[in-house]
Amino acid sequence: MKTALFIGRFQPFHKGHLYAITEILEEVDEIIIGIGSAQHSHTLNNPFNAGERIRMIRESLKEHGIDPSRYFLIPINDINDNRLWVSHVITLSPPFQLVYTNDPLTTQLFNEAQFKVVSLKMHQRELYCATEIRTRMLEGESWEDLVPKKVIEIVREIGGLKRIRNIGTTKLKI
Amino acid sequence: MKTALFIGRFQPFHKGHLYAITEILEEVDEIIIGIGSAQHSHTLNNPFNAGERIRMIRESLKEHGIDPSRYFLIPINDINDNRLWVSHVITLSPPFQLVYTNDPLTTQLFNEAQFKVVSLKMHQRELYCATEIRTRMLEGESWEDLVPKKVIEIVREIGGLKRIRNIGTTKLKI
Amino acid sequence: MKTALFIGRFQPFHKGHLYAITEILEEVDEIIIGIGSAQHSHTLNNPFNAGERIRMIRESLKEHGIDPSRYFLIPINDINDNRLWVSHVITLSPPFQLVYTNDPLTTQLFNEAQFKVVSLKMHQRELYCATEIRTRMLEGESWEDLVPKKVIEIVREIGGLKRIRNIGTTKLKI
Amino acid sequence: MKTALFIGRFQPFHKGHLYAITEILEEVDEIIIGIGSAQHSHTLNNPFNAGERIRMIRESLKEHGIDPSRYFLIPINDINDNRLWVSHVITLSPPFQLVYTNDPLTTQLFNEAQFKVVSLKMHQRELYCATEIRTRMLEGESWEDLVPKKVIEIVREIGGLKRIRNIGTTKLKI
Amino acid sequence: MKTALFIGRFQPFHKGHLYAITEILEEVDEIIIGIGSAQHSHTLNNPFNAGERIRMIRESLKEHGIDPSRYFLIPINDINDNRLWVSHVITLSPPFQLVYTNDPLTTQLFNEAQFKVVSLKMHQRELYCATEIRTRMLEGESWEDLVPKKVIEIVREIGGLKRIRNIGTTKLKI
Amino acid sequence: MKTALFIGRFQPFHKGHLYAITEILEEVDEIIIGIGSAQHSHTLNNPFNAGERIRMIRESLKEHGIDPSRYFLIPINDINDNRLWVSHVITLSPPFQLVYTNDPLTTQLFNEAQFKVVSLKMHQRELYCATEIRTRMLEGESWEDLVPKKVIEIVREIGGLKRIRNIGTTKLKI
Known about the structure:
The structure is a homohexamer of 174-residue chains.
Chain A (H helix, E strand, L loop, with lengths): L2 E6 L6 H13 L2 E6 L14 H14 L7 E5 L6 H11 L5 E3 L3 H9 L3 E3 L11 H10 L9 H9 L2 H9 L6
Helix pairs in contact in A: 2-6, 5-7
C-alpha cells in the first residue's frame, strides 16, 4: 500500500488544496493530511484554530465525495526546531513513503531524511493561495469563489471575517 | 447533530475501548476520539507513539465495520497545565456537546467548563484495562485476547514487546 | 461587587495608564491590573522586567492616593497561544465581570469567551503612548512629562536609559 | 526600607502562613508574598489555581487588618530549572534584601546567590501544614480550624472539596 | 575515522566512567561524551550543573593523560520526548557511527534509528555507580575512593556535600 | 588562572572569529567558546546545526595549531528570556572572569550581572561578518576566502549551499 504525506496550514482550506488532494489520490492508496501550526489561531497568518480547520477539510472532502477511509487528518504542532521536525511528523503519523510538497524547506528537510519528495502541479497558483484569500477577507474583497462551499459556511458560522478584521487592526499600542 | 468526545491514551487500544466506541455511537451521530499524551512514547506508561496508536484505532474500527465518516481521530498533546486543558481540547477539535468518561478529573474539568459528562458502562473493567495489558506484555504473559486482532498485528510489526521490555529494565543507572 | 480587568504591558507605565485606572475605578469597585508579557525584559518592546513594572505601577498609584485595597497587580506571562490566553488570564486572577481595553484582539478573544468588553476613553492618545515614550528614550528626547514622577525615579535608579540605548544598538552581527 | 521575600505554594493559605506574615512584618517594612507553582491547579498537591490563592491570601490579610500597602502578592510560575530559579524570582519581584524560609533547597539556592536567609518560627508546625489540610479535605475530616475564615468561604464558593475528592480518585486508568 | 558516542549524566563523574572512556578509546579514534540532563541541577538525582560536570570530566581526563583532541564534551538538554531524542542528540553532535551504552532504553532508541550499539564492560558495577555515590554523599559515608581526585577537589570547592544534604532534607512542606 | 567567555552563533565560523580567539588567547589562559542559538538550524539566520558548528570550530582550531586544552566548546540553547540568560550561560559553563564581546545587549546583560566585559578588536569587520557570508552563499557569490579551509570542506560535505538556497526560497505559501 502506498501512502503519501501532504502538509499545509490550511488557513483556510481552499480549492487549490482540494485539487491537490484529488490529484494525489490518483497516485497513492492513502493520503495523510498534516495540519501544520496546529496550536496557532487568532493571528493574521493563522486565523483559524485546528478544530475549525479539521471541520473545513473534512466537510469539504465529504461534499466532494472523497472516501473517508482514504485519508487521515493529523494536526501537527509547530515545535520551532527544524532539527527535529521530520521526526516529529513521522511519529505523529502512520507510515508514509512519499511527501508531496512545493515548499523548498519541507523538501530539503525530508530529502535530508531520505524521503522521496514529489512536486505538486498547482492549479492557478496565484489565485488559489491562502495568503491571497486572507488578504481579501481582511480587506472586504470577494474570496468565496476560491474555497469550497463548506468553508464559506464554516467561516460564517464562526464569525471568521469579523475575527480576521479585529486581528488585522491590532497592534501593540498600550 | 449530536457529537461526543471520548478521550483516552490508548496504550494500547483494547476491546474495552472498542466496546465503548460502539456504545457511544448508538447514542450520538459522531464521536471525536481524542488520543491523549500524544507526544509521549517509549515510556512504561506510554510505550506507543501517536502514529502507532492512530493506526491501531483506525484499523481496528475498520475491521469492525465502523463507518469512518462517523468518527474523528485527534491527537492531543499534554500541556501539563490543568487550568488550560479543556480550552486546549476544545480548540483542537470540532464542536461537541457531550463528554464520555469515567475519569473523575476529566469529569471535574469538563463540569467546571459547563459540559455534560456521561459515564461509560465498562465491560469487564479489570480485564480490559491498558495497565493490565502493558503489565502482561512486560512480563511475557498472554495479552492478545484483550485487544482487537489488528492491534496484535501492529504490535508485532513494530517490535512492540521487545520495546516494552527494554523500557521496563531501564533505570537511571550510570 | 463589580471587578474589572485592565491589561497592558506597561513598558513603561505612563500617564495614560494612570488616567485609565482612575477612570475605571469610578465605574467599578476593584480593578485587576494585568501586567502582560511578564517574562520579557531587555528588548526594545519590553525593556523593563516584571518586578520593575510592578514597582512603577504600585509607587505611582500610591503617590496619586489610590487605595491599595482597590486594585490587584497580576503579572501575566505570554503563552504564545491565543487559543488558551483567556483561560490563562482567568485562572491567574480573581474573578472579574468586565474587561476594559481598546485592543481589537483582546476585545475579540474576550468577546468569544462571552465577557463584556468596554472601550477606554483615551487621553491624548498619540502622546500618552508607550511606543512613543520608548522611542524618545532611545533617541534622547524628552519623555519625562509623559509618565508619573515615580516612574522617572525608577528609570533613573535602574539605569533604564542606558539599557534601552544598549538594546537599541544591538543587532545580530557576529 | 527593608523588604523581605516569603515564598509558598499556599495550597491552601492557612493560619501558619498568616502567623508567619504577621511575624515577618514586625521585622521589615514590606513583604513580598511569592505564590509558587502558580500555573498549577487541579492536582492533589496543587488543587487551587493562582487566582483562587490570591483571593484567599488577600481577603484573609484584609480580615486581619494587615495594611495592603505593606505587602505585594506575586504569582511565580515553576520553571523546572533550579539553575535559573533565583534569577526568575528576582526579576518578577520588586527588590528585597531578606528571604524568610524553612525550606532547605530555597535556603541553599538563595545562599548560593548571596542572599541572607532567615528561618521562620513555625507555630504548631505539624498542625498548620498544607499537606495535612489537603489530606483532611480529601478524607472528609475537619480542616476548617486550620485556616482563616475567608479561606473556608472561598473553598465553599468554588466547590473546592468536591474538586479535591474528584482529583483524589483519579488514576491513569483507561 | 571511527567516532563513538558515550552518554551519561555524570552525577558525579566517577572511576567507572573513566575506565569506560579509556576502554572505548582503545577501539575508536574519537569519543563524543554527551552530558545528559544538562539543564538540571540542585536535585537529588542531578545535584551538579552542567558547567560543574564539564569541569569534573575535563580535569579528570587531563589528569589521566587523555589527549583532549580525542574527545568532545557535549551538554545535552533533556527534551522529555523520547520520539525526538535521537534526532536531538545527532544534531547537537559531530557525526558518530557507534553508541556505547548499557542502558536498555538508549539501546532501544538508537537501534530503532539503525545505529550500532555496543555494551560496556563495567568495572565493579555496584561500586562505581553514581546513585551509590550520591547516597554516600547524602548520608555522610565515604565516597572519595570511587571518583577521580579532581572530582573530590571540585565537589569541595563548590560546597557539593552541603548542597546535596540541603536538597536531601527538602520536601514540599509549606 | 584567567578564563574568558566568547559567545557567537558561528553561522558559519569565519576568519574574524578565528582572529578573535587567537587574540583572546594572548590575554587569558583558557577560553570558553559558547555556541549560541544551539537548537536552531535550517533557517536563513541559522543554517547550520550545533553539531556542524562544533566541527567547523574544532577542526579549524586544530588546523591552526590551537592547543585543545586551552578552549572549551559549549553549545548554548536560546531560552528567549533575557532575564535569565546570564544565569543560563553561567551554569552551563566552567567559571570565567571576563566576557569578550562587541554586542551591546550581551555587554548590558553581563554588566548588570557584575562581569567585566572587554571589546574585541575586529579585523576587517565588514568583510569577516557571518551575515555577509550567508548572503554570498545564498546569492552564489564567492565566500570561501572569508572562512578557514576546514569550514569550506564541511559546508561542501553537508551540502550546505544547496540547503541555504532551499531555505532562502521558502516562504509561507500554501
